[in-house]
Amino acid sequence: MMIQALFFLFVFTGGTTSNPNLYDPEDNQFASNRTSDLVLGKDETNTSETQVGAFVFECSWESILKKFDLRENNVKYTMGRPVKDHHHVTLVYMEMDIFVILDVKEADQTLVSYIWVYWRWNNEHIHWNPDQFCEQTHILVPAKLLWKPDLTIEEMTDCDKTAPSSLLNIRHDGWIEYRNGQVVDITCKMDFYRFPFDYQVCKISFKSIMHSDEELLLVNNRNETLTHYEILKFLQPESDWHFEMAETNTETVDYFGFNQTKIVYTITMERYPILYVANLLLPLLFFVCLDFASFLMSETGGEKIGFKVTILLSVTLMQFLLNDILPPSTGSVPLMVIFCVWIFTMMLLSLLVTIFVRYLIDKDQTCKVKKNHSPLKCCFAGIRKWIHCSSAEDTAEEDESFPKEGCSSPHTDVSLVMEKVYEELSEMKKSKYLLSSRTEDEKPGYWTRVAEKINKVFAVFYIIAVLLFLSVLFTVWNIDGT
């Protein structure tokens, strides 16, 4: 029985009664095979390593940085293009999305928008097998650790005030991705000839600042047939403009002696005219109607002139508003400006005609007053009164006493003289009437009738001019629109 127990112990202990692995004389620690396995598993967790057979895999992003020595002062990744041979061309694939139009400054001819850009290029120095790094296919690193394309927007007039993206996405196959949102203030040549029913075409061109096509080549990353939908799919609705079309094309230009490729995004947008029609166009038409209605007002008072002056000042205010919207210089004079100037001219002419008509009416009234208070008429009235008094006195004296024969009264002699004077003045008056009858200038109400005729003729001319001008303007508007 004792022998069987010893044999069983021998087999269990592997052929010896003592195991040196169970005791470590250096650190006086006992350890078993199971304990060693547990400790190994703990160390594996601390070092982020995975052991499969004879291979050990790193699972942290720091291991990838250490593998390629990605640090801030490494000139290999920051100083030049990421190519192993300088004859290799760096292809930069790019996309652009428009998120919102912040402002359209017509006076400055600039477009302010918020856009997102996406760049992608290959770095020949970076490549790893995801299987050796726990299936890590990409990592994010600070943008200052790697070279980036020196792309700029050709039409940009103001520097971007938003902070650029500080991260780059590195993929295991060596492709570097960069995404950035920015506010761009770009110049846009605008045509206001058909304002407010106008279309505007603005361009956003991306190109390299220093590299030629032999070093860096821009490539559109989108299908050109889907450009319109892709560019405007994130666009937020804007109150004043509606985007009709967006397209992209690639152009090659010669700048400072070397060729450069640039990607041009062309955006076509249409203005919503409702606001300008309600606030500018319709009030001008209403002012024309009011000015025409003023022809029905009386010419005797001064209210008509004051009414026309008020309308003229209102049109002037509209011109100031239009001046704030439109730029000081354009390729052609907008039709809206021509319309405002024409309305102002017609109203000014109407005011001048009203002033002239009022002058004629006042002249006619002045002639009537002078005619009723003429000195010759007063003289006739005095002579008639004096002769009548003298005749009455002579009659009374004759009734009281009879004069002697052959004698004449001094009153009678004076009466005869005055009668002769009266007869001569009457002849002069008749001669004056004969002369004045040859012309109609002094007829009562003559200038009033002339003023009424002028007023009627100008009213007809005003209506014909308005209808004719609006017809021509509408025709030109449609011809230029087509």
From TrEMBL:
**Gene3D superfamilies, per the entry:** Neurotransmitter-gated ion-channel ligand-binding domain (2.70.170.10), Neurotransmitter-gated ion-channel transmembrane domain (1.20.58.390)
Does the keyword Transmembrane helix belong to this entry?
yes
* Job description of the protein: Forms serotonin (5-hydroxytryptamine/5-HT3)-activated cation-selective channel complexes, which when activated cause fast, depolarizing responses in neurons.
The family note in this entry says: Belongs to the ligand-gated ion channel (TC 1.A.9) family.
Residues forming the Neurotransmitter-gated ion-channel transmembrane domain are 281-419
Instruction: Keywords in alphabetical order, please.
Output: Cell membrane, Disulfide bond, Glycoprotein, Ion channel, Ion transport, Ligand-gated ion channel, Membrane, Postsynaptic cell membrane, Receptor, Signal, Synapse, Transmembrane, Transmembrane helix, Transport
Q: What is this protein called?
A: Uncharacterized protein
Range of residues in the leader sequence = 1-18
* Organism in which the protein naturally occurs: Oryzias latipes
Which Pfam families does this chain map to? Neur_chan_LBD (PF02931), Neur_chan_memb (PF02932)
Superkingdom of origin: Eukaryota
Using the record's annotation, list all stretches that form the Neurotransmitter-gated ion-channel ligand-binding domain: 80-272
Question: Is Membrane one of the keywords UniProt gives this record?
Answer: yes
Q: Where are the transmembrane segments?
A: 274-293, 305-322, 334-361, 457-479
Please provide the Gene Ontology terms (biological process) for this protein.
chemical synaptic transmission; monoatomic ion transmembrane transport; regulation of membrane potential
**What membrane topology does the annotation report for this chain?**
Multi-pass membrane protein
